[in-house]
Amino acid sequence: MEGMQNMLKQIELTKDDLWEVMRAFIEEEGLVEHHMKSYNYFVREGLRELVQSLGDLEVKTRYGTLILKLSNPEVGAPRLVEMDGTVIENVKPMECRLRNLTYAAPLYVRVSLYLDGKPISSDRIEVGILPVMVKSEICPLSKMTDEELIEIGEDPKDPGGYFIINGSERVIVAIEDLAPNRILVTEKDLEGGQLSAIVLSTIHGRQSRVEVTYKHGGPLKVFFSRIYKGIPAIIMLRALGMVNDKDIVNMVSSLREVQELLASSFQEAEGVDSEAEALRYIGNRIAFGYAEEYRVQRAEQLIDTVFLPHIGTSKAARYQKAIFLCEMIGKLLETSLKIRKTSDRDHYANKRVKLAGPLLMELYRMAFMKLLRDVRYQLERLASSRYPVNVSTFVRPGIVTDFVKHAFATGNWPGGRVGVTQLLNRTNYLATLSHLRRVQSSLSRSQPHFEARDLHGTHFGRICPAETPEGSNCGLVKNLALSATVSRQAKKRELLEKLYSAGVLPFTEMWSRKRAYPTKVFVDGLLVGFHTNGRELVKTLRELRRRNEISSEVSIVLYSYEHVQEVWVNTDEGRVMRPLIIVENGKPLLTKSDIENLKNKTLRFRDLVAQGKIEFVDAEEEENAYVALSPETVTHEHTHLEICPYAMFGVVAATIPYAEHNQSPRNVYQGAMGKQALGMFAIN
Questions:
Q1: CA distance 169 to 171
Q2: Is the N end or the C end of the chain the one with fewer CB atoms within 10 Å?
């Protein structure tokens, strides 16, 4: 009977049918769409978020207090400014290539000036340029048909996804980094048994590292930017407003053996019992020798703006920061008692790929800060001699333009990163596609980093196992697999509403009913509440995702083992995902009629996602999945089915015939040499 069922499955879906699904995926998503989507999001949303995060510029003059506000950033159409000042609108990329010019659009910002709270002026001013990604939504080529592209001398098969700076085609190479805003517990000192919990708190291109260290039996210490000598963890919690010892103990963990490990930390904090005393203690560490009022003010400023800024930078966010710090301490102590395992830094759940959007966010944050410093200087200089009226005299667009052009031309990025932009490889078409899908690690090339260079199990279907260079870059420079796509930022507010309507109790109400709500619920690493049954919540959320009521790019994960039950929901960008066919009751939801509709073009790949037949799964959610490699191997235990196992390769390795019959080094050699063959990289 079982043999008959397997035979029916084989008749139902063939390998050719599954290739039709993969073909539709690649056709719709595109091979460089991840960069395009990231850049488009930066233009639509990222710039606005960045300008809002800058805050107001305040300057005291003899006329009163001047306040300058930036708002409403807008990007114009691509244009050229000639040497004589002539402006050429709606310029095309080909003209920039031929004349060694930069393909860019003007960047406008609404600049409002106030004197003692009264508005003086408000003007839309050009503050610099934004290099235009070829074939992005602000590039005219994206709206043209193949015939129109040929007419203006462009190659319709050109993938886009790169920039033109001084006539050279340059690509922003994606950077693989540790996931931000996520607690990672690692062994700091193997011999001494010291553990540390690390969080890279990141918001709007600004990063702050927070670390909690623990040596068995000793006190807990907190380190973050500008704090070189650790602050006792209990004192830090009291400074954040969590003063009651019982609240601290209960928030860290409900396990008795974990709570007992806090004894030495409480002893170290003796004598510092209130929020005010804790702030004075921190102030003495960072501003010793100054007046007490200034010391406390500096301590408050530091814990609001530098300590866990992703949670918030106002006083209102302090208690939530205290809860997050308790979570860090709890994970650290549970790891020391072997209740949890240390974090695997190389697991792709703990990695994020930074594409054009986040990298441009970092660059423009620094550019705007340089601009504001110059505006402050201009205001102080000019306002001292005459009454300030004309805003355009204070804002010089050359500052942002020069800074951005230099970064793009050299590849040197804020934060000491080098080689972020590279000359696009045009040796042949494969070399171009490979360069646009490349991912480079931020780790040093001179160090061994054995584990980081190794192929990890979570790379399957996400990172090509064959395409990596030889030598010092081996394993650090990688390429996305054909089946891989990169997540975009999903709408968090809508998701939180769905969570609370699904029975999640907000953490502010959980004290009285914590025992009845044993499952912690996290969104992007932040504790948002508790639930009675984690397994049921995960099932409900996945059903909502399959019904297209929440974003298809949200990942939903259940961690369930002894003493630990947590639901993790991720909405952040940079997670490498891959599509899988959903299996229910031992049968793939994708049918033969769906394949026929794909062939007839009456159905698109995204329609299958919206219908809940295919879903995108990241490395973390795949830990909850059981994936069958082919239709004939599907059983009732399986949750998903691979679309095409051979899509585990990248664009170059996928062209190797019978790659599974070769020794792996031979595939690696071809991965490098396929890009060196002289070919026609474009038809124009």
A1: 7
A2: N
What pLDDT, on the 0 to 100 scale, is given for residue 444?
A: 86
> Mean pLDDT throughout 577-597?
94
Structural domain spans, the chain? 33-177+353-423, 184-342, 490-571
* CATH code reported for the domain at 490-571: 3.90.1070.20
Burial of 201 (0-12, 13-18, 19+ CB in 10 A): buried
SS (H, E, C) 373-421: HHHHHHHHHHHCCCCCCCHHHCCCCHHHHHHHHHHHHHCCECCCECCCE
Q: Are 127 and 397 in contact (CB under 8 A)?
A: yes
For residue 7, pLDDT over 50 is answered with: no
CA–CA separation, 125 and 113 (whole Å): 12
Cα 220 to Cα 262, 337, 580: the distances in Å are: 8, 15, 43
CATH fold, domain 184-342, is 3.90.1110
Q: Is 34 left (phi over 0), alpha (psi -120 to 50) or beta?
A: alpha
pLDDT tens by residue, 642-684: 999 999 999 999 999 999 999 999 999 999 999 999 888 887 7
pLDDT recorded at residue 511: 56
Strand partners, 129: 106
Confidence of residue 173 (pLDDT cuts 50, 70, 90): very high
Measured at the CA of 371, the angle between CA 297 and CA 135, to 5 degrees, comes to 120
Instruction: Tell me the CA distances in angstroms from 59 to 62, 115, 125, 511, one per residue in order.
Output: 10, 10, 20, 46
The model's confidence at residue 9, banded by pLDDT at 50, 70 and 90, is: very low
Report residue 562: phi and psi, to 5°.
-50, 125
Mean pLDDT of 348-359: 95
Mean pLDDT, to the nearest integer, of 408-429?
Answer: 93
Beta bridge partners of 58: 67
Q: Distance between CA 195 and CA 215 in Å, rounded?
A: 6
Contact 477, 468 (CB under 8 A): yes
